[in-house]
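Batch job 17 of 40 flagged for manual review because the log was empty.
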Amino acid sequence: MKMRKRMFMRTLAGAAVAAAFAASAWAQQPPVKIGLLATLEGPFAAGGADGMRGAELAVKQRGGVVAGRKIEIIKASSDAKPDVAVNAARKLVEQDKVDILVGPLSGSEGIAVKDYSKTQPQVTFINGSSGAQATTLVNPSSNFFRFNTDGAQWMVGLGKAALDKGYKRVMVIAEDYAFPYSQVQGFMSEFCRLGGKVPVKAWVPLGGKDYSSVIARIPKDVDALLVVLGGADAVNFLNQYEAAGGDKPMLGGSITVSQDVLNYRGKRRDSLVGTLSAGPLADAYDAPEWKAFVADYQKNYPVSSGAYPSPSLFALVYYVNMKAALDALEMVKGDLSDGHKKYREALAKMTLKTPVGDVRLDENRQAVGTTFVTEVVKDDKGNLYNKVLRKVDNVNQLLGMKREEFKIGSRDEPNCP
C-alpha cells in the first residue's frame, strides 16, 4: 500500500514538473508582433481611428494572448496616399520587424501595400478595410489576404433598389481613385443591366474642399445622385449642397453612410434620412452575433471617449481582418515557422465567423461574403442609423458574372449614358 502511494506521488510530481516545463516553454515564446496600419490623417482620419478600435477589440476579446503567445500591436499612420501608406508599412516591416501586418484603410493604399508585400515574403499581410477591386483581382500577392469583401461587392443590390424607388436616371459624384471606381462599378453593373441610365459622372479629388462646380453640373432631369464620398469629403459636399439649395434624393456609397459621416452635426444631416445604400454591415441588423459585437464595442468604447453609437464600417472591417489574423494563429498553435507556411494555409482554408456572417476566401485570397442593402433612418434619440432592406449572401468578387464578361471599375467603365 505504501509503495503504491509512493508511486502515485512520484507520478504527480512528474506531471507537475512536466506542466511547469511546458508553461516555462510557452512563457519563453516571443510575442507575435502585429503591425496595425490605418489612415489617421486626412479626410478619413475619423474612420481610421474607428478602424483602430475595431482591430484592438479583436485583441482585447482574447486577453491579448493567442496560443500562449502575447500579441504586441505596433501602430502606424497614413493619410490615404499610396506612397505614405507604403512608407508606413516599410517602417513596420523593416524597422519594427512585425510578423503580421494588418492594414491599410483606403483603396489605392491597398493596391500599393499589396505590391509592397511581394518584396517581403517573410511577413503575412492582411488587409485593413481597403476595398479596391484590383488589390486582389489584378496580380494578387501570395502573402496578402483580404477577409472583407471589396467596394463593388458592397454595392450589390443597390441598383435594383434604386430602380424600385423610381430612380431611372442617376448622376454619380465620387472621389477620383480606385475604391470609388469599384463602388460605382458595383452599382452600375446592376443598375445599367436593369435599364437605368447614368448621364453624368463627376470625379472629384480626394480631400477636396470646393464642390461648387460639381453642384452646378447636376442635370435637372436626373432622379437622384449616387454620392461616393467618405469622411470629411462627404461632410463638405453635404454642407455645400444644402447651402446651394440642392434637393435631389441621394443614394450613398458604403462609406458615405457609415457612422463617421452619419454622426456629423450639420443642417444637411437630417436630409440623409431615407438614403438608400449598400455595404458589408447594417447598424440595425438583428443577428445575435452582430448585437454582441455592437454591445462589446459600446462597452469598450463609449460615446464619451469619442467613439460612435454603433461601430462604423471601418471598425467592423478592421475587426474582421484582425480576428482572421488571430483565429488562424490559434489554429496553428502560434506556429509561424517555415515562412508562415502552416499559418497561411490556415488563413486560406478557414471559414471565418464574423458578426455579419461567415466569410471564406477565393483562389486570390479575397473574401466571399454578405452585403446589406440599407436605408438611413432616425431613432427616437435623434441618431441616424442604417436599417436592413435586403441581405445578399455569398457575393463573390466577379458579382456573379463570368470572368470574360467582368471588367474592373474605372473612370469610364461601366458606361450607360
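Reviewer: the log was empty due to a logging misconfiguration, but the result itself is present. Residues 30-148+287-369 form a domain with the Rossmann fold fold (CATH 3.40.50.2300). Unflagging and moving on to job 18.
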